[in-house]
Amino acid sequence: MVLDDAALKKFGFIPRKAKDAINIDPLQTGGKLTEEASRALLEWGDGYSVCDYCDGVLDLIKKPPIEEFVHSALPEFLNTDVARITHGARESKFTVMHSMAKEGDYIVLDELAHYSSFVAAQRAGLNIRTVPHSGNPEYKTDVDGYATVIDDLIRETGKAPALAQVTYPDGNYGNLADVKRISNLCHRYDVPLMVNGAYSVGRMPIDAKKLGADFIVGSGHKSMASSGPIGVLGVKEEYAGIVFRKSPTHKNKEVEFLGCTVRGAPVMTMMASFPHVVERTNRWYDEVADARWFSSRLEDLGIMQMGDKPHNHDLMFFEAPVLYEISQAAKKGRYFLYKEMKQRKIHGIKSGLTKYFKLSTFQVGRENLKYIADSFEEIIDKYQKMG
């Protein structure tokens, strides 16, 4: 079949509509490329670029210094024994689940885990039990619930689960669970713990060993200023031989990665941004201060922040009855907020959301946050006067 010109014209270069807006989308704030990464994207964008330098094991390429990055810099950054780059946080989670558990085994997830954690377990043929949270308004993961769930599984099945996972922070409310306590509880039963740090690795200081994590997962395109998809995986030495096992037929190929990790532009942009990413984690407490300031401003307007208070992360979830009430009478209905924000060049709150929404203040800056808070106030005043 030959495509006609009309069909082909739909493709080619497509500009991004929200590129110049202030971005508060939690999926995007930590993944914005540095200037160095933007240059690397152009330089290494060809599909074969990195493979030109490979002698059979991509993460052992010496020039460019992928080997040093993967086997030295990245483990030091995470404070873990061994590390790899992957095709994303969900691929990292699946790699651990698939290698550490057998089909039919149980694993334990926090109830607030990202959907991809559930799907990864399902793809690996695993059964899932969840640890509950406290519900509205704090949504705190029940730390002691890990012991309760593990005890229940041992009583029902005769053995402990193959793996437990905690999301740090969770992707809805931005809560930071007490990972060290969870780790201590899990290790009492010899259950290894995986920490999903998709919204923490690259944003805030992370120390896998202090957390007691046997595995730690990160997202390059969410939180490490990298073009995606790309992720990172840190593994305790005790489990490295299991997770990174080699093929019996192709001796230098690691089975869980289908013989090759991330190649091309994603890994080069991650390395290009890495000095900046390391440096910005040292300024994490400024980010927390900005998030708390912004939360306070919105709460003064009747937009209430759910989750931990005082908040300890840039990702926040809000309940906004004042905006929902406006949407019931506004000409543009539940889309009024998105359109008002778009007019002010603010991007990140999903179209159609007014009563509940989440956002991120990461790397936005106090001046822009003041503009955003003022915009919420202007919008509320505008429609209340109209009403």
TrEMBL record:
Tell me which EC number(s) this protein carries: 2.5.1.73
Gene3D superfamilies named in the record: Aspartate Aminotransferase, domain 1, Type I PLP-dependent aspartate aminotransferase-like (Major domain)
List modified residues, type N6-(pyridoxal phosphate)lysine: K222
| Reaction catalysed by this enzyme | O-phospho-L-seryl-tRNA(Cys) + hydrogen sulfide + H(+) = L-cysteinyl-tRNA(Cys) + phosphate
Is this entry keyworded Transmembrane helix? no
**InterPro entries in the cross-refs:** PyrdxlP-dep_Trfase, PyrdxlP-dep_Trfase_major, PyrdxlP-dep_Trfase_small, Sep_Cys-tRNA_synth_arc, SepSecS/SepCysS
**Enzymatic class:** transferase
UniProt GO molecular function: Sep-tRNA:Cys-tRNA synthase activity
Q: Where does pyridoxal 5'-phosphate bind?
A: A89, R90, N196, S219, G220, H221
* Cofactor field: pyridoxal 5'-phosphate
Q: Name one GO biological process term.
A: translation
Pfam families given for it? SepSecS
Q: Which UniProt keywords apply?
A: Protein biosynthesis, Pyridoxal phosphate, Transferase
The answer to keyword Transferase applying to this record is yes
This molecule's function is given as: Converts O-phospho-L-seryl-tRNA(Cys) (Sep-tRNA(Cys)) to L-cysteinyl-tRNA(Cys) (Cys-tRNA(Cys)).
Subunit record text: Homodimer. Interacts with SepRS.
Please give the family membership noted in the entry.
Belongs to the SepCysS family.
Designated name of the protein: O-phospho-L-seryl-tRNA:Cys-tRNA synthase
Q: Which organism is it from?
A: Methanolobus halotolerans
